[in-house]
Structures are given as C-alpha cells and as structure tokens.
C-alpha cells in the first residue's frame, strides 16, 4: 500500500517526467538533414494502405497563459491564409513520394486553434489533403476547437469536409481560475459550441479539463465536472496541468504560490474521477474517461488502444504523416518532426523541400521498450512474453528489462508469470514506472539501464 508520503517520495506528478506520447520522446530527436530519409519512409508506405495524417495549425486569436502548446497569436487572417497556402504546397510535396491508392484512416487537425481558419480556407485545406489521399470508409476526422473561436459557418465547412469528431478545450469553468490562467470562457459559450457540433452530426465529442490549476479546490473542480457532464460529452481528457515556465514563457504569469501541492493534485484528480465514473464514464489510462459505447472505451476493453502524439487513440495505422510547422509523424522506421518555427517551415516548403528538421530512426530495442511503455500507460500492465513474440525477441531479454525496478520503485508493481502490473494505488506513478523502461532517460539520469 502506497502512502501519500511514499508516492511523493517516489516523485508523484513530477512535471519533468515525459507523458510518453512517443518512444523515444521528442527531446531525443536529432536535428539533421532528414528530408531524404523521410522521403524514403513515405515511399515505403505500401500502395493501397491506410495511414493517419496530422495537420498542425500554430495560430490562436488569444494566447492563454497556462498553455504549453506550440502556437502563436494573430489578430488578422493574412498569416493564417499564407500558412494554409504553405500547407497546400507541403501536401503536394508529400504526394510526390506516396504510392497509389493510399487512404486516410485518421485525420486530425490540431494546434493552436484550427477553427481560426475561415470557411474557404477549411475547404481549400481539406481539398488539398484529399487530393493526396481520400478519407477511407469509416475514417475518423477530428479537430481541436476553442469554443470561443468557432461558429456555424466554419463548422459547416468542416462538416462538409467529413468532420465526425471534435475536441473542445474547457480547462475549468471557475471564473477566478479562468482569470489567473488567462482563459476566460463562459459555460454558455461552451454549451453553444457543443450544440453547433451536435447539430452537425459530431458523434464523438471530447472535452479537455485540467486538474492542478492555481486556486483549484475540490469544490471548484466538482462544479466544473458537473458543468462538463451536463454538456453530454463522449470522452474526457483530464490532464494534469504541467507548469513548465522555463519552456512556456506565458506561464510566468501564473501565480506559482497558488498551485496545489502534489497531494492536493491527486485529491483533485480523484474527486473528478469519482464524479465521471458516477456519471457512467469508464476510466482509461492515466488521464482519460469515455462513455462505454465510445470507440476509445471499446478499444480499451479490447486491449487495442494505442498512445500517440494526440494521446490515447483507437488509431492503429503504422504511419502518421506530419503536415505543418512542428508537426511530428511516425513511420515503422522512426519519427520525423517538421521545423518548429513557422517562418523556417514556410521557407523550407517554399524552396520545394520536405520540412523535416528533426528525427529519430529506430535502433536496437526501441520497438520493444516503446511497446512496454505504451502498454503500461494504456493498460497499467504488460505481458512481457507477448511483447517478445510481437517483436520476435527472446522473452528473457524483455523480462530482464524490469530487473531492479522493485529496488528503485519499491511496492509499485507486481511481476508474476512474465506479466508486470502497476498496483492500483501506484497508478499516479505510471509515467515514472514507464520511465524505468526508457533507456535514453535512464542512461541520462545515471541509472543502470543502458541504451
Ligand atoms: C493544443 S490545445 C488546443 C485547444 C484549443 N485551442 C482550445 O483552446 O480549446 C489542447 C489541450 O492541451 C492542453 N494543455 C495545454 N497546455 C497545457 C498544460 N500546460 N498542461 C496540461 N495540458 C495543457 C489543454 O487541455 C488544451 O485544451
Ligand atoms: S489553449 Fe488553445 S487557444 Fe489557448 S493558447 Fe493554447 S492552443 Fe491557443
């Protein structure tokens, strides 16, 4: 049984532990001349196969202080229009390297705020994407939406392009918290955005909420959760607020002294979790909830859920094509990240180059360790024998990766018959336990596991 003191000692909610939306994590990617490699990876995607495609829109009308996402402010349409033209050009460059008959199984527009695009820009961008690869039968097309930055016309354009999923940001409904995190947003505006989305047939609607915000209390998060459930979402992402002012300068405006302690954060998470579960949601992984009939809950129950840069997903495609500044893609051979700076990205594409700036080609036991980490975060358990079979390696090699875990993180896991399980009360440490299998992080921190 883990006491709070013990959980804290072991690093409860340590903001420096990666969220493991990839393995290795993005800070391990190396800068270099990756365009030729990525061209080969695109060319290796088999003709007629299904892929995912992620488009990053790094613009927002407002810049919320709490936000750690890669975005920049704009009050005018010009930079956005120029950016959409660049995306169209990049898509043509990508197309040159793709075999025939490839279709998109999962299309995601993230940001930033993709709903900043005017209706014509939405239609142009969608058209350019579908010229490269059409949506497959039953494909999922989702967009991240700031409820204060959307209207019927823009949603009509998205729906006409095939949008069937959406994710809206709430964070917290409390006006005082909203003020100190620099994100005003009324319940009414949010409710109206939900109505507009449902009227356009959006089946799977996700809401982002944060715990661990300044001045957040059990009473305040209870009120926010009740307001969120009254909107009838299908999924919830309940992210722990990551206070990383050294990376995200806007966060220097956040009153550090008003942030809850790690123990209070755990309490806030548990309070919200209990309310969602009481409302019929299933708890999924470290920070998600879904209604039992939602695809994510079904994938979770079937053991087919995955984790990628968008978080938990039903997406099983082996290739995700990255489009836009800072966008990260995944291929069976490795990861590729586009130029993070919007201007450098645009310059590269204008010159007719694929805009990859950083990457990582899988080596050694990357696939095995990546799968262990993915399973730990999806299911809180990993069957080492199954991972060995999947990757055609000896089971002993995989099981040996857990050697010493119980010395470093005592009483947090159980290893029995080749299956490692994270104990229930140690689940808040799941990312820290996953990090034990991260050879890059562990070698950097001086632990015994070598790369
Ligand atoms: C890329 S943002 C896009 C959301 C959309 N622009 C909006 O404002 O609603 C996606 C989500 O990332 C999460 N996020 C942003 N900054 C975060 C932070 N510092 N810690 C944890 N989650 C964060 C928020 O929950 C946010 O809704
Ligand atoms: S939360 Fe959304 S609107 Fe606010 S800065 Fe981040 S991406 Fe932009």
Task: Write up this protein.
With 451 residues, the protein is α/β, with parallel strands linked by helices. The chain has helices spanning 4-9, 35-43, 78-95, 119-132, 152-161, 175-180, 187-199, 218-230, 262-278, 295-302, 342-350, 366-379, 384-390, 395-399, 405-408, 430-435, 439-444, and strands at residues 30-31, 50-57, 59-60, 72-73, 103-111, 135-145, 165-171, 204-211, 235-240, 282-284, 288-290, 306-308, 311-313, 320-323, 328-331, 334-338, 356-361, 381-383, 413-416, 419-422. The strands form 5 sheets. A 9-stranded mixed β-sheet has the order 10-11-9-8-7-6-5-2-14, with helices on both faces. It has a 4-stranded antiparallel β-sheet with strand order 1-17-16-15, covered by helices on one side. Strand 19 and strand 20 form a beta hairpin.
Please outline what is shown here:
The chain has 451 residues and is of the alpha/beta class. The protein has 17 helices and 20 strands. Helix 4 links the parallel strand 5 and strand 6.
Main structural class: alpha/beta
Reported for the largest beta sheet, the result is: 9 strands, mixed
Separation of termini? 32 Å
Instruction: Categorize the overall geometry.
Output: globular
Helical coverage, percent range: 25-40%
Report the total helices. Answer: 17
Order of neighbouring strands in the sheet with most strands: 10-11-9-8-7-6-5-2-14
Question: Number of DSSP strands?
Answer: 20
- Hey, roughly how much beta strand do the residues contain? 15-25%
